[in-house]
Amino acid sequence: MSATDFVDEDLVQRREPAKDAPRPPQPGAGEAGRMARKKEDVTGQVAVAKDELERLRSRQEALEREKNLLESLRANQEKYELGKREMIERLEQSMVTLGREEMQINQRLALLGDTGKRFRDMLAEIRGINEDAWPTDTASFREELAKTLAVIEDMRKEYGKSLARLEALRETQSAAEAKAPESGVFFDDMSGNGGGRERGFGFWVKVGFGLSLPLIAALVILAAALLATLMR
Predict the structure, then answer these.
(1) Complete DSSP assignment for the chain
(2) Is the confidence at residue 191, as pLDDT, over 60?
(3) Number of Cα atoms under 13 Å in the Cβ half of residue 104
(4) What is the pLDDT of residues 33-62, one digit of tens each?
(5) Contact by Cβ (8 Å): 92, 185
(6) pLDDT single digits (tens) 6-29
(7) Measured between alpha carbons, how far is 216 from 156 in angstroms, rounded to an integer?
(8) CA dihedral in degrees (109, 110, 116, 120; nearest 10)?
(9) Cβ contacts of 70 within 8 Å, gap of 6 or more
């Protein structure tokens, strides 16, 4: 090149590649970075969602336990209130029944005591009759026998009236019990002894028969003695 040749230095510099100039970014490199960051964000959100679900599951289980405890408490409260009302009603009805039966038993015992005492007196009076002390002549003997028969007849009537009073008292008390069957049946159900009333009546029948048996035996013995005396 001669000294007169013109050299465009700017053009030469533009044509020569710059040795130290940075390389332009390759296509797709920025997209990969954004995807990685997005993946990390999604992974973090998934972890947060799992933690929230676990927290909600624990809270649900705690609420279920609390609900079960409250339902059990409510059931026990209802059971307590029902049992309390039921026992108050049963105890009140039982007290009424016991009071009535106690009064009836006292009446029966009083009548049985008076009747038994009178039967013992009558029995002692009959046993005290001494046929050997009667006069031997026919007229006097007939008179003494008539008086003794009158005494025995009076005793027989009194004996029948006493049994009738016992029976009347039993029927009156049975009628009173029939007017209030709820308390009587209730008391029988509570005691588990539905047949107690029938056995109770049988018991009183046995008592009456036991009290009257000595008098019946004495009457039979006296009648036999009188018959033997008349046949002499």
Answers:
(1) --TT----HHHHHHHSPPTTPPPPPPTTHHHHHHHHHHHHHHHHHHHHHHHHHHHHHHHHHHHHHHHHHHHHHHHHHHHHHHHHHHHHHHHHHHHHHHHHHHHHHHHHHHHHHHHHHHHHHHHHHHHT--GGGS-SSHHHHHHHHHHHHHHHHHHHHHHHHHHHHHHHHHHHHHHHHHH-HHHHHHHHHHHT-TTHHHHHHHHHHHHHHHHHHHHHHHHHHHHHHHHHHHT-
(2) no
(3) 21
(4) 778 787 888 888 888 888 889 999 999 999
(5) no
(6) 555 555 555 555 445 455 555 555
(7) 9
(8) 140
(9) none
Give yes or no for a contact between 145 and 135, defined as CB atoms under 8 angstroms apart. Answer: no
Place of tokens 């005793």: 155
Task: Give 185's pLDDT tier (boundaries 50, 70, 90).
Answer: very low
Instruction: Return d(Cα 93, Cα 100) in angstroms, integer.
Output: 11
How far CA 133 is from CA of 121, 136, 139, 141, in Å, comes to 21, 9, 15, 10
Those residues whose C-beta lies under 8 Å from the C-beta of residue 188, and which sit 6 or more positions away, are: 194, 196, 197
pTM surpassing 0.90?
no
CB atoms near residue 162 (< 10 Å): 22
| Position 196 pLDDT exceeds 50 | no
